[in-house]
Amino acid sequence: MKAIEIKKDIYWVGVIDWNLRNFHGYRTGRGSSYNAYLIIDEKITLIDTAKESFKDELLDRISSIIDPAKIDYIICNHLEQDHSGSIPAVMEKCPHAEIYTCMPNGLKNIPKFYGDLNYKGVKAGDSLNIGKRTLQFLPVPMLHWPDSMFTYCPEEQILFSNDGFGQHLASSLRFDDEVDYSTLMYEAKKYYANILMLYGRQAETALKATANLDIKIIATGHGIIWRKYVKEIFANYTKWCTNDVEDEAIVVYDSMWHSTEKMAKFIVEGFAQKGIPAQLYDLKENHISDLVTEFLTRKYIAVGSPTLNNNMMPTVASFLCYLKGLSPKDKNRLAFAFGSYGWGGQSIAQVEEELKNCGFTIWLDNMRIKNIPTKDELLQISETILNK
Ligand SMILES: Cc1cc2nc3c(=O)[nH]c(=O)nc-3n(C[C@H](O)[C@H](O)[C@H](O)COP(=O)(O)O)c2cc1C
């Protein structure tokens, strides 16, 4: 396993997780990578590590450039184990190295992960001279853990952004101009939606903190390194974190006997007649992590469930639980609930309640239809949307 030079004396020494398909519930259909970077300077510096199970691959790539015993500094931009898990394995090779982590939370928490090692805390404005180069630390708390930080190298104009701007995308290629642009941007959007959407304010702060930096390369902690499309990924992050949505709708439902499904189709029809593009998703066929990705840039959301044993269907509950956790709590997002029922029909109000808990504005009274909808009832649905 060889290191890949991304700039003179700066190497990607990460690992590729080709077969990763589930990252704590986020479906990662294209795998991922855990990117680490080795800087050869007067002080040899390793930026981030990798999941513990990939430690041999990481050490192999480092060893293709230098003996890991020579590492002086390890920068831990984020404590989560996919980036920090190989710290003990690396420290076994270079026991005198110093580990830099963000203050206060990184420094406070890291001993619970890796015991008593040689930790140094850094804060906003701190920098570390490593020889010809300097590393400046930019804490980005809650993007997406309390200890998260970016590390910037002004001499090289590289931002080591850890989870920021990352994508779960496994590839033997390392740079944005080498891979398919729409796949790359879709995976960056999916990553933002599933990991960072609830931290929009923190993302905005992070963007402001980097606005005055000259950044030619964003060396991410996952996936592909940005060098050609730096402006584009910054522009998209600005859109995503400010809830700059399109006048488009997403309709999500489950259905046992197709009645709620019929309603869903006439909801899409109503949006289409109104000139609002809408996409329809059956929760039996679609993964919630794909649906929140679609939701990210759409203004309208309609969620439907028939009543099952006095409740909404578990698939719908799961989707709403996930959405509520990630929700940007944006009042400009417009929502409503719908569903078919047999007698009590409790599911529809439950769905509406969860949409309120997501922080959305309820745009339409919920739509309830007893048993199988008639043609007239279905036409009424699309007309209600059209006339709103
Ligand atoms: C196992 C089961 C449990 C149900 N429980 C309820 C219930 O508690 N309350 C209710 O109003 N309807 C209940 N229903 C009726 C369905 O909500 C009704 O048939 C509805 O039209 C189904 O919509 P769908 O075709 O979208 O699945 C139940 C149906 C089934 C099959």
TrEMBL record:
In the N-terminal section; belongs to the zinc metallo-hydrolase group 3 family. It comes from the Bacteria. Residues 249-388 form the Flavodoxin-like domain. GO terms for molecular function: electron transfer activity; FMN binding; metal ion binding; oxidoreductase activity, acting on NAD(P)H. InterPro entries: Flavodoxin/NO_synth, Flavoprotein-like_sf, Metallo-B-lactamas, ODP_dom, RibonucZ/Hydroxyglut_hydro, Rubredoxin-O_OxRdtase. This is Flavorubredoxin. PANTHER family: ANAEROBIC NITRIC OXIDE REDUCTASE FLAVORUBREDOXIN. It comes from Pectinatus brassicae. PROSITE patterns: FLAVODOXIN_LIKE. Pfam families: Flavodoxin_1 (PF00258), ODP (PF19583).
